[in-house]
């Protein structure tokens, strides 16, 4: 298959008409309680479009959602936005009415500084739950960031750093595509690391296959023109096959947010869901899916303490809900995840997890195998519920890879699901045991 | 409240008319792949009643159940049994029809040696999944154990050792009570450690509040006389408030089994569910509940790598299912459990877990507090969704205890649930990463 888009170097500012900045304002030092001896880390980001952009946003379905999520979800619903202000080091979650005021003020300060209406500014926060935002530092940060806003790639990289929490590296992707004879670009940036199993939706209603749990933040910019319905539909599909299919620890965050801004600077005819626009929309979708999936995989590979990247490919389920539930039971089982860490092809633990999931399983029908990432040659440890004669050493050669696939066939139906997951290591425990 | 029973020293052989033995037959060395340099460990156990006993058994509701579970569940259903043969080091799970034959043969060998009908012998296995039982060793073990069967306490202790896998210590409780003027005894023994979140039932139907996941084995003997309906009802209630309320890692095993034998040697009028027998049955229930709960707590305290024992007390839910689901979401969250390990009162992670559970939660209503074990003085970190002014240091004094309670009030209804749980440590990961 020929790709209809091209991966290009760049950052969130690669699409025309976007500027970014990422600065230090010392929320991280406060919020995480880490001493200042760790050195300052960027923790305040601004992203601005030169012109009002069509916006779509998907947010956590956790019943406990952070103040910035509540505000941004309502504003994204309006369909037009021009800026995002974000901080790391403090989630502004479980902070009640005062927290909501803080989030609103954060957008107000940014709006004033950028000469925008506050309703056109979205906010995101990530970090420790339950602490009030240090608003003096937020204000300082916004004041410092605004004059640095720039369309050069480095400003995008600075933003990528400023939204990081326990991430060990920034996560960015950019692509270029043709839309009706015009060149358009899509670029994304995200952060993840822990509390990662997003289940996001446009409406607050949980996706059909309900995941359990990250804070992940993702901003995607494009200079394509798009109608709101087209943009919402495209982002929903892109998230469904990427961020909503990953798990690091099975813990869904209060702050997960994916925000897509389309500012039309590429000059294409606006993408729309009508028949006439289908071909362009399909091309845009394919490119957007790629951006979202690459970013989602980066989150898993950089998951807290993760030493291996495992793709669970489950098929033969009676329904998609069954496929999704069974794959997540495997990917979130502490016993399965520790065996992956050890490079141990312990398919018995996988069977145990399948069996206790609420998905329909018939022991005597289950196949379990391993392959290289995306590999077509599957080495089966179990066929129809019985151990094969494949040698442990041969299975181990696969499960000792940094990345491998687990193939499960329930042989009960035609539904399938893929989950991208990480192993459970001592480092994860050490990292999260507190200060 | 005056206890209607008395805790006494002893073992599974304390009730009249029971004999036990626990011997070495080297299944463990094989099954776990550990080298023989680790020293031999008892791995084959026999438990025999001098006379046919009324039996009740609750077994895992995992859809993938081990061969001995399938056999024992069917035989327990018949209502009369006289012996149990058990091995550790190999779960005889995911072994298909040959595994089922092995389990059957295990009971047949024991039955012959003990002069019983095979249908009166139940079997239990625990250990690695997916390996065939080494039947020659099983046979050797049974032959070695039979002549050692004895009613002295030490034989019960030997049995307690022989069913251990990753347990660091044997787990035994015995009590004495009066039933209609006669002295009766109840004694229990169990093993646990990892793959612990049982959800057992008499019928294979999952309990209303469906837990996710251990291998735990438990044998309870009593010299009380009881009808089958009374014994089944009593065991169901005892398990519902003990083993089905614990979690070590949220992984439900393929082998969980609780078997209760009542041989009537105390000479009481048989316990029954009719009006006339209610007082005795209630007294028996209270004592049985104590035995089951003490054993269940021992499993959590000796959970793989566990460094703290935490009781999650959740109330104010709209239904018992909501209460149970929310309490389990908290007790199984990797982020919550690692914060417990660190002695960190990170209630924000608890809120996150409540919010992603499928239980109904209203952020602005939730209270979260901490106390000493069973303590009535609760220190609230969160009231009506907002952080209180209680100092972190005061909360830490509680969460740094080896045992503490977490109190959650959803303030939405009158249902409650308790879950006994352990923290997530590096040792757990190290232990389970394979060989």
Walk me through this protein's architecture:
Two copies of one chain form a homodimer. In chain A, strand 14 and strand 15 (386-387) form a beta hairpin. The first copy, chain A, has helices at residues 27-32, 67-78, 96-114, 135-145, 153-162, 228-240, 278-301, 320-332, 334-341, 347-356, 392-399, 426-432, and strands at 5-7, 18-23, 44-60, 80-90, 121-128, 171-179, 182-191, 200-201, 217-222, 246-247, 257-262, 309-317, 367-371, 379-383, 386-387, 403-409, 415-422. In chain A, the strands form two sheets. In chain A, strands 1, 2, 3, 4, 5, 6, 7, 8, 9 and 11 form a ten-stranded mixed sheet that branches. The first copy, chain A, has a seven-stranded mixed sheet with strand order 10-17-12-16-13-14-15, with helices on both faces. Chain A has twelve helices and 17 strands. The longest helix of chain A is centred in the middle third of the chain and has 24 residues, at 278-301. Chain A has two domains: 5-301, 4-Layer Sandwich (L-amino peptidase D-ALA esterase/amidase), CATH 3.60.70.12; 309-432, Roll (Ubiquitin-like (UB roll)). Chain A has 435 residues and is α+β, with helices and mostly antiparallel strands. At the A-B interface, helix 9, helix 10, strand 15 and helix 12 of A face helix 9, helix 10, strand 15 and helix 12 of B.
List the main descriptive attributes of the protein structure presented here:
homodimer, 435 residues, alpha+beta, L-amino peptidase D-ALA esterase/amidase, Ubiquitin-like (UB roll), 2 domains, ten-stranded mixed beta sheet, seven-stranded mixed beta sheet, 12 helices, 32% helix
